[in-house]
Amino acid sequence: MSRATLLRRTPTGAEATLWRGLRGSRLNGWKFRRQHPVDRYVVDFACLKAKLVVEVDGATHGSPAALRHDAERTRVIEAAGFQVIRVNNIDLRDNLDGVRETILAAVLRRDHL
After folding, report:
1. Nearest to residue 52, comparing CAs of 26, 82, 32?
2. Which residue range or ranges hold the DUF559 domain (predicted)?
3. pLDDT tens string 29-80
4. HSE (CB half, 13 Å, CA atoms) of 65?
5. Residues 47, 107: contact at Cβ < 8 Å?
6. What tens digit of pLDDT does each residue of 81-103 get?
7. What DSSP string runs through the chain?
8. β-strand 83-88 against 52-57: which pairing, if any?
């Protein structure tokens, strides 16, 4: 079983919440994939048409080591031609509509490049 398949089968609560708002082209018709491979990483969500990656970050992403790892991960994903935006679990819990609006705005900016 691939790492992407395993991650799709065991989403975090925040990932599951966001996926309910993105799946089936629910974000104004934009298609997203979840747990999609990009270079050597598996990203949380990717809109291939807009070359946009959405990463969901929990509390463990705040340590200095995690921040360095996330920066390297972002560098590699951006080198593959994607823009990376990060959303945190608290924003997903408290403001899902705002997170969806932020993602939609990023998709629309990427679509016009």
Report:
1. 82
2. 2-106
3. 999 999 999 999 999 999 999 999 999 987 676 788 888 999 999 999 999 9
4. 1
5. yes
6. 999 999 999 999 999 999 999 99
7. --HHHHHHHS--HHHHHHHHHHGGGTBTTB--EEEEEETTEEEEEEETTTTEEEEEE-GGGGSHHHHHHHHHHHHHHHHTT-EEEEEEHHHHHH-HHHHHHHHHHHHHHHHT-
8. parallel
Q: Can you give the pLDDT at residue 64?
A: 87
Amino acid at 68: R
Residue 6 in tokens: 């395993």
We find that the CATH architecture of domain 3-111 is 3-Layer(aba) Sandwich (3.40)
**Dihedral over alpha carbons 84, 90, 93, 94 (to 10 degrees):** -110
Predicted TM-score (pTM) above 0.85: yes
